């Protein structure tokens, strides 16, 4: 009896296996593309944003060294954690050691966040004076400011000196007082307009501020 070769069957099996392999590979690759695309979409929908308000600049009208201070309220209005890492006045960067910040939600209330920031004047070495009624900060801090002057109205701001960027979660607020490097502003600048920037990475926008005399 003559045996019939099985070549056709082998070819048929090879074709089926090849088709299955192609299908599996397509599914795996397709799933990877979907996951990658979803990841890109989710990352793209998250935004970094800060809002700045209540900006103030004060210059000592009688000091020839150019003693000046500023204040602002900052809120993380995006949906990513960010770090406020730069304050500039007329292109001059304010060092972290000259930042005084309160970000405690019990003190940085909506009322304090939207308040008119005040200057208590400066002492002989150029440090801003704490409010006379601001004695409620525990533990004590470098600077305390009572925005309504009553000691019983808005919570007293307890502003701690910083050593680096200030992190804010989405929705968090802070109030910052800062000492401008000496000589950046002078007594002649009182009443003039100055540029000021507050940044969190690349997020931020220039502010235009009228300089007050203190």
Describe this structure in words.
With 214 residues, the chain is α+β, with helices and mostly antiparallel strands. The protein folds into two domains: 1-45; 50-213, no CATH class. Helix content is 20%, strand content 33%. The chain is built from two helices and twelve strands. It has helices at 7-45, 110-113; strands at 50-59, 68-76, 82-84, 86-89, 92-93, 99-102, 143-145, 157-161, 166-168, 173-180, 193-200, 203-213. The strands form two sheets. The protein has a ten-stranded mixed β-sheet, with no helix packed on it. It has a two-stranded antiparallel ribbon with strand order 3-9. β4 (86-89) and β5 form a beta hairpin. The longest helix is centred in the first third of the chain and has 39 residues, at 7-45.
